[in-house]
Amino acid sequence: MATILITGGAGFIGSNTAEYFLNKGWRVIVFDNFSREGALRNRLWLESFDAPRLKIVEGDIRDFTTLRALVRRADAVIHLAAQVAVTTSVENPLHDFEVNALGTLNILEAIRRAAQYRRATPPLIFMSTNKVYGNIDTPIALTPTRYYFTRLRSGISEKTQLDFHSPYGCSKGAADQYVRDYARIYGLKTVVFRSSCIYGARQFGTEDQGWVAYLARKALLGEAFTVYGDGKQVRDVLYVSDLIRAFDAALKYIKCSKYISGEIFNIGGGLENTLSLLEFIEILRKKTQNPSVAYSFAEWRPGDQKVYVSDITKLKKTLGWKPFISVEAGIDRLFNWLRSAECTEH
Questions:
Q1: What is the DSSP string of 68-117?
Q2: How far is Cα 122 from Cα 6, in angstroms, rounded to an integer?
Q3: Mind telling me the catalytic residues?
Q4: Known InterPro entries for this protein (predicted)?
Q5: Angstrom distance (rounded) from CA 37 to CA 206
Q6: 47: number of CA atoms within 13 Å, CB side?
Q7: All structural domains of the chain
Q8: What is the pLDDT of residue 346?
Q9: How far apart are CA 10 and CA 6, in angstroms?
Q10: 3-state SS string over 177-209?
């Protein structure tokens, strides 16, 4: 029976990932400091499974001693623990660096040193971000509801020049490159996923991160929210279960082939699953049957991209993966979860 260590395992993506691997028969170690909104609720939800194969450890990604001990027990590691908000990184760049860059280096060193105690080190999947590409220098145009690329027919590929914009972009970008380089220099089995917008059940979104769930919850509660920029900014969105299928595929592939070790993949919904904020507000009006969803506009925030769409061609070709859940189906699933009392209570 294999053991998987999930850092940030009580977060939105982490708790869904923990459930997935528990259902697959793995032992699961959830490591989290429970600082994020919703993390304690997700912990209670995981504990409700009453699964003897689940172990929850409270701790900080900056604690190398604890990480080293946990990594020794793991057959695979999915590293999701992070400081996730651009605005927070601008306010406190030192904390952002310590969590995202130093925390990731701690994981890498713990895995590298695990070679002293075992024949094979566990593979590592690292969750990076599209923010490593910064403000992409490519022509865009505008319709009444959205921005769009005029030349990039498939979206942003992994060959796009890196341009770390904002302290968050710098810390995640540094971590991203460390993960790649530890595969080259030390032979670790690593995969980097540069994600676009992930959404779904168990997402307790905030104004700074998790915008799909945040705006949906605000609309359900009849509360006003702020749109930063003009609302025409576009992202490709991916339902969380599709992301986790990519995790599983990468782990299976890296066990039997070194071909993807050190590889980087852009992951998101791709061109077929894009939304602008204004378009999403229209969906919210229909879902809540409220034609007057309340919102106001404010200035653009640092590092915000007017349009980002992932080119997922490499991931499709390499792992045979593609999104299964459409925007319409994913938002239906999200609303079904949000309508539960747990998610609409303050």
A1: HHHHHT-SEEEE------HHHHHH-HHHHHIIIIIHHHHHHHHHHHGGGT
A2: 12
A3: 168
A4: NAD(P)-bd_dom, NAD(P)-bd_dom_sf
A5: 8
A6: 9
A7: 3-344 (3.40.50.720)
A8: 46
A9: 9
A10: HHHHHHHHHHCCCEEEEEECEEECCCCCCCCCC
Whether residue 276 contacts residue 232, with contact meaning beta carbons closer than 8 Å, is answered with yes
Q: Global pTM?
A: 0.96
Tokens of 165: 């914009």
Tokens 């024949």 -> residue = 119
- Distance between CA 313 and CA 309 in Å, rounded? 12
The span from the CA of 291 to the CA of 254, in Å, is 49
DSSP character at residue 242:
H
Name the burial class of residue 123, with classes exposed (0-12), middle (13-18) and buried (19+) by CB atoms within 10 angstroms of its CB.
buried
CB atoms within 10 A of CB 41: 15
- Distance (Å, rounded) from C-alpha 272 to C-alpha 269? 7
Residues of the chain with pLDDT under 70: 257-258, 341-346
Between the alpha carbon of residue 311 and those of residues 95, 208, 255, the distances in Å are 31, 24, 25
- The CA R_g of the chain, rounded to the nearest whole Å, is 19
Contacts of 53 (CB under 8 A, 6+ apart): 1, 22, 25, 26, 27, 28
Q: Taking a C-beta distance cutoff of 8 angstroms, is the pair 195, 238 a contact?
A: yes
CA distance 81 to 98: 12
